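Figure caption, in words: inputs first, then the predicted bound structure.
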Amino acid sequence: MNTSASPLALLGGTPVIDAPLAPFRSVGEEEAQAAAQVVRGGVLSAYIGAAGEAFMGGPAVRAFEAKAAAYFGAKHAVAVNSWTSGLIAAVAALGLEPGDEVITTPWTMAATATAILHNNAIPIFADIDPQTFNIDPAAVERLVTPRTRAILAADIFGLSADMRALRVIADRHGLKLLTDTAQSPGARYGSGFAGLFADIGGFSLNYHKHIHCGEGGILVTDDDRLAARLAMIRNHAEAVTTAQEPSELAGMLGYNFRLGEIEAAIASIQLDRLKERVASRQRVAAQLNAGLAGLPGLRTPQVTAGSTHVYYVYGMVLDTQQLGLSRDGLLAALRAEGVPGLMNGYQNIHLLPVFRRKIAHGTTGFPWTASPQGDAITYAPGLCPVAEELHARSFLGLALCLCEYEPQDVGRVIEAFRKVWGQLDALRA
Ligand SMILES: *Cc1c(COP(=O)(O)O)cnc(C)c1O
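Bound structure (pyridoxal-5'-phosphate present):
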C-alpha cells in the first residue's frame, strides 16, 4: 500500500512502518561454539591477582588481545570487562593528581566524563564542532590552564575527532591525549583506525556497539609504560607492585576490570565480523543519504575529508526556522510513522546533576570549587553553546544500533521522512 498519500499517522492516517524492524543481532553459531568450548574447558577466567604469568589472564583473553592489537595496528591491546572500566583505567594510567584538569566533550556518554571524576580529576567541558559533533580543538585550546594534564576526546556517532589538531595542542602544552572510540570501531582516520591516534584509545564491546560480547572493552596503546600500567590497574594493582617496579608502579589503585574467558572468546569471533558490520552500516547510511537528499531544512551527516564514518548514529541537523516547525513536532510526526531509533537531541553531560551540582565528592573541599584563577569552576548552561543548541533544538538522530536494516526497511524509513516533509503544512496547522 502506498501510505505516502495517506494523512500523517500523527493526524490519524496510516503509519508507513506498522511493525517493528528485526532487532540488532550479530552473534551466531560461531560465537555459540566458541563460548561452549570455554565452558567445556572449565576455566571461565584464568586471572590470578599475584605476580606471575596468570596476572595477565587466560588463553582466550590473550588471544583476543593479540588479535585486536594486530587488527587495529596497535602495539598493545588490553581487554577489560566494559569500556566504562577501560575509560577509568585509561585516565588512571596517566597518574593524575587530585584536582588536575582533563578537557573533554559534553557530547558523549556520561562514562567519558565520569572516568575523570573517578580519578579525582576535574572534567573541563569544551564545546563541540557543529558539523561533526566532536570536540572542537579551538575550544579546547582556550580552556588549557596550568592545571590541565590531558585531553579526553570522543569519536562520536561513528566519526573520529580531529586528532591531528588535538595532538598539536597536546604537544604544545605537554598534555596526554586520550580518546573514547566506543561508537566508532573500524572507522578510518587518515592512515589508520579511529582510536589509534591517542596515547590511549579503545572500544566498547557492549551489546549495542558494532561488535560485542555482551559486556566488554578493549584498550589500545603504542606506549609500553602505559600498557603496563593499564594491565596493573585492571587486576588489583596493589597485589603485585612489589614484584614489579615499585618506583614506577607502586601506589596505583587497582580494580577488578578483568574480562572473562567466555566473553573474550566471543569477542575474537566478533572482531572477524567488524569489517562487514561497518560495511553494512555504511550501506544503510548511503541509502539514507540518497533518499533524504534535497529535503529542505534537513542536513544529513558530514564526513570529514580523510575519514570514514561507521554510523553508530546517523546524525542530522534541522533548520527549524526554515521549516517553521519545532524539532519536537517533526519528531512526533516521524515517530508516529513508525521510524525506529529517533533521538531527540543527544547529551549535555556538563548539565547532569553530578556536574552541575558538583556533588560527586561531597559539597566541600574537593578542588573543583576553585580554578587556578580563583574563580569557581561551574557547569552552568551557556558553557557549551553549540552543544546546548543542538541538543535543545536542532539535532535529530537516528540510532542505527537497534535494528537490522534490510534495504526495504531503509526504504520505508526514507518514505516516512518524505511523507512528513510532503505534509509540513498539515503539521504546522
Ligand atoms: C557505550 C559507550 C561507553 C561505555 O561503554 P560500556 O562498554 O557500555 O561500558 C562509553 N562511551 C561512549 C561514547 C559509548 O557510546
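The pocket of pyridoxal-5'-phosphate is lined by residues 82-84, 108-109, 111-112, 154, 180, 182-183, 204, 206, 217 (CB under 6 Å).
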